[in-house]
Amino acid sequence: MELNALTALSPLDGRYGSKTAPLRDFFSEYALIKYRVIVEIEWLKAMAAEPAIVEVPAFSDQAIALLDGIADTFSVADAERVKAIEATTNHDVKAVEYFLKEKTQASAEIAAVSEFIHFACTSEDINNLSHALMLKGARDGVLQPALEKVIARLTELAHELADLPMLSRTHGQPASPTTVGKELANVVYRLRRAWDVIGATELLGKINGAVGNYNAHLSAYPELDWENFAREFVMCLGLTFNPYTIQIEPHDAMAELYDAIARTNTILIDLNRDIWGYISVGYFKQKVKAGEVGSSTMPHKVNPIDFENSEGNLGLANAVLRHLAEKLPVSRWQRDLTDSTVLRNMGVGFGYSLLAYESCLRGLGKLEANPVALSADLNANWEVLAEPIQTVMRRYGVANPYEQLKELTRGKAGMTRETLHAFIDGLTIPEAEKARLKSMTPASYIGMAAELARQI
Q: What digits encode the pLDDT tens for the residues 139-158?
């Protein structure tokens, strides 16, 4: 069966392939091979630039241009050639080494030092740097920009709806009012912090040989400061140097990134469920798109499918991300191979996250607040003003303020303005305070909500 969007095993490459396509540049098999090629080339160039490695003279501009060109123009056909070599070697990283020797054999200058391709390296030296660069590129170029759009849209809504009063619910029951904008501002603040943590997570790399001690390096060049050489090389790739490793870079930094993304996704799960609930009680309406169908049998339905899809994909993303975070830092002795197959699924966690962000953003774009429903709910719950009344009573030394309001309001439906005003009139507090309390409505009792929403 020919592989295409209809026959793909994973929906990330099938049904949702067009939406996850930007991640292919970072997490496909082609991308992994390309980043391995980049690291191998940069390592060879670094040795040529080091005077102490006299057997690799400084490269000419032409040689550097040839090497850079191999990386810059690396194609699917090139990747297929690497895979063809791998079919013989049965080793993916060694196949990259042989590929580079093929591509540079016409250059006498590079061919003369071809045995310095992959010099003193174990496969993990190349792989850990490749994986770190893949994650960095996908995070900075795809995932964070997508999340930033969600944050920007939520910020817009927080400002637009800053003054629109809304009944809060704690434990599902009516509680002190807020505004729609303030509730969205709460999420904006959480997501901004989470976005910063994702971006600030350092991605580590190492290139210290078979067990992390520069054994092979020092056997060939005992006078060279290999630790400093490795540090400068890793840092020149835009990564943070890890000086202490076994054969593999321990993946702790990767785990930190996956955890940071998963925590961010959990915030969005919370948002999706809340908005789903607000839609269900009529606080939000959804813009109708011509031609769309909500139900195969109930023509009237306008379902909150974007938020449902987002929630489902966030769950899938977190299942993968958390497994990556828990498994990858664990390796038997100096290494085992269990990380290898798991690392090939980095893009899965990113893919489902990206789908979820885009679904959430699409849903946010369809939302319209429903002031009529919001107002009706507030006006049906005058008992929420028990809080300010008993608080003012406390200020003026009225005995048992909480207990008096509890007796008046707790569990009693149909509380009205008139009932509360009659209670206020009987209080021994200043007349000005009585007037101020009687001027309050559920819609006006919002504290700093509007101001806080506008400040976000």
A: 999 999 999 999 999 999 99
> Which amino acid is residue 136, in one-letter code?
K
- 412-417: which pairs have CB atoms within 8 A and are 24 or more residues apart? 412/383, 415/381, 415/382, 415/383, 416/382, 417/382, 417/441
Task: With residue 285 as reference, give the H or E element that holds it.
Answer: strand 284-286
Strand segments (E) across 111-172: 165-170
In a 13 Å sphere around the CA of 391, the CA atoms on its Cβ side amount to 9
Looking up tokens 């297929």 gives: 80
Whether 321 has a pLDDT exceeding 80, the answer reads yes
Helix (H, G, I), strand (E, B) or coil at 332: coil
Specify whether 323 is located in the same domain as 420.
no
In the set 171, 296, 300, 439, the catalytic residue is 171
Q: Which domain holds residue 51?
A: 19-121
Say how many C-beta atoms besides its own lie within 10 A of residue 127's C-beta. Answer: 22
Domain boundary among 121, 140, 173: 121
Cβ atoms of residues 164 and 369 within 8 Å: yes
Find where tokens 């966030």 sit.
314
Would you place residue 287 in the very low, low, confident or very high pLDDT band (cuts 50, 70, 90)?
Answer: confident
Q: How many domains does the chain have?
A: 3
Per-residue confidence band for 293, with pLDDT thresholds at 50, 70 and 90: low
Instruction: Please tell me which residue in 10, 60, 280, 295 is annotated as part of the active site.
Output: 295
Catalytic-residue membership of 295: yes
**Cβ neighbours around 327 below 10 Å, total:** 15
Q: Which two tokens stand for residue 138?
A: 């996908």
- Least confident range of 124-128, 135-139, 284-288: 284-288
DSSP letters spanning 332-378: STT--SHHHHHHTTHHHHHHHHHHHHHHHHHHHHHEEE-HHHHHHHH
**pLDDT for 303:** 83
Phi, psi of 28 (to 5 degrees): -75, 170
**DSSP bridge pairs for 170:** 173
Can you read off the two tokens belonging to residue 348? 């899965």
| Long-range contact pairs involving 447-452 (C-beta distance under 8 Å, separation at least 24) | 447/176, 447/178, 449/162, 449/177, 449/178, 449/179, 449/181, 449/182, 450/162, 450/163, 450/179, 450/181, 450/182, 451/162, 452/182, 452/185
Examine residue 400 and state whether it is found in any structural domain, yes or no: yes
Do 26 and 48 belong together in one domain? yes
Q: How far is CA 66 from CA 45, 101, 175, in A?
A: 11, 12, 69
Closest CA to 45 of 28, 60, 35: 60
Average pLDDT of the segment spanning 55-83: 98
* Residues written for the chain: 456
Instruction: Summarize pLDDT for 421-454 with one digit per residue, the tens.
Output: 999 999 999 999 999 999 999 999 999 999 999 9
